[in-house]
């Protein structure tokens, strides 16, 4: 549905300063009906990337295609028309305070020259879809944040878009309201097969409703994939920084100080084994002990859930010969279990800390 090819964006120099590179080498495909989350720290380029999809930002180089149409090749009038198939919602809702809920939702249709009767036919069902029928004649100032965002969503859907862009749409909301708005977006995605691209600095948002994710760092995509895979096996340090706090992959501080990052004499390797899906309950520890004559001291373990699928982590200190430990790691990998050496146990550390 959306294809970004070799996108570069550099903002021109202002006031004697240097040009600001914002995006570099972006290649991204978003499938029809997908909820695609883009995460990154402040300044990573998320807004620029999102606004490139509807060409609110013109890329310095590269091509943008939406539903088979190359937006970057369209003349201005055709681009304006093509933009109607791309709705957008914002962190601060961007509603017109002098217009009622109904009139805010009707605005894009008025601008497109749709007749009054047809506008009514379109707006009333949208208000019902977002649960605001009873607020139809209220003004934005009379609404809660969550209700305002519902108006924003209804307005973004007024032209029957194929794509919805969400610019930090829940960042100004409390956690409970955030959950309700995410539920609404997931519901709309299912019911209307709407493709949704959302940018956020809150990874929990993507964990909740995303299908795939891209991680942006310094204007580049450093990691992308299915949400479950990226959450279960984050590779890039930036991704880990986002993922670890919400899926409890990290070691508690009380255990972290027992780890040496480099091998030391008599320091046993410490392995993090990750289990996903059905394998979460595999009796892997006893099997490895028997097969390779290893002692596996369990340091830490937990089972989490990512979008309804179990995901477990076990951190063990492996005591045995190097050959046996390497063979055990190979066997885990062959069986598609995640395994990594996260450090080396400082001798006596368990006893000392116990
Ligand atoms: N209009 C502009 N002119 C010049 N530089 C800009 C402009 N907009 C953004 N930038 C710069 O481009 C880079 C990426 O900004 P962008 O707003 O896309 O990041 P972001 O990840 O959305 O950040 P945040 O989460 O803080 O909104 C930053 O260095 C920013 O300062």
TrEMBL record:
Keywords: Amino-acid transport, ATP-binding, Cell membrane, Membrane, Nucleotide-binding, Translocase, Transport. Residues 2-243 form the ABC transporter domain. SMART domains: AAA (SM00382), NIL (SM00930). It holds the Pfam family NIL. InterPro entries: AAA+_ATPase, ABC_transporter-like_ATP-bd, ABC_transporter-like_CS, ACT-like_dom_sf, MetN_ABC, MetN_ABC_transporter-like, NIL_domain, P-loop_NTPase. One of its GO terms (molecular function) is ATP binding. Transmembrane segments: none annotated. PROSITE patterns: ABC_TRANSPORTER_1 (PS00211), ABC_TRANSPORTER_2 (PS50893). This is Methionine ABC transporter ATP-binding protein. It comes from Azospirillum oleiclasticum. The lineage of its organism: Bacteria, Pseudomonadati, Pseudomonadota, Alphaproteobacteria, Rhodospirillales.
């Amino acid at each position: 549905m959306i294809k970004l090819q070799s996108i570069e964006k550099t903002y021109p120099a202002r006031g004697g300063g240097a040009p600001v590179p914002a995006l570099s080498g972006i290649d991204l495909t978003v499938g029809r009906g997908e909820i695609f989350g883009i995460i990154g720290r402040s300044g990573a380029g998320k807004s620029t990337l999102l606004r490139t999809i509807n060409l609110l930002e013109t890329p310095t180089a590269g091509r943008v295609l939406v539903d088979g149409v190359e937006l970057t090749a369209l003349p201005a009038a055709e681009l304006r028309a093509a933009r109607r198939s791309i709705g957008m919602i914002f962190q601060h809702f961007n509603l017109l305070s002098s217009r009622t809920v109904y009139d805010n939702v009707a605005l894009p249709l008025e601008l497109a020259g749709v007749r009054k009767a047809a506008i009514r036919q379109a707006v009333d069902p949208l208000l019902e879809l977002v649960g605001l029928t009873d607020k139809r004649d209220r003004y934005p100032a009379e609404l809660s944040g969550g209700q305002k965002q519902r108006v924003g969503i209804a307005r973004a859907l007024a032209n029957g878009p194929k794509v919805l862009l969400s610019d930090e749409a829940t960042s100004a909301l409390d956690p409970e309201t955030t959950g309700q708005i995410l539920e609404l977006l997931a519901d709309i995605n299912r019911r209307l097969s709407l493709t949704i691209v959302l940018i956020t600095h809150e990874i929990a948002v993507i964990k909740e409703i995303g299908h795939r994710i891209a991680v942006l760092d310094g204007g580049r995509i450093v990691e992308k994939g299915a949400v479950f895979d990226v959450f279960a096996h984050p590779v890039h340090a930036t991704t880990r920084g986002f993922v670890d706090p919400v899926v409890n992959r990290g070691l508690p501080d009380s255990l972290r100080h027992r780890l040496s990052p480099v091998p030391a004499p008599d320091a046993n390797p410490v392995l993090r084994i990750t289990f996903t899906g059905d394998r979460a309950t595999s009796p892997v520890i006893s099997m490895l002990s028997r097969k390779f004559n290893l002692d596996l001291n369990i340091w830490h373990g937990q089972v989490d859930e990512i979008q309804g699928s179990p995901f477990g982590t076990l951190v063990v200190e492996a005591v045995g010969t190097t050959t046996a430990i390497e063979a055990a790691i190979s066997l885990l990998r062959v069986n598609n279990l995640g395994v990594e050496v996260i450090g080396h146990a400082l001798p006596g550390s368990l006893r000392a800390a116990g």
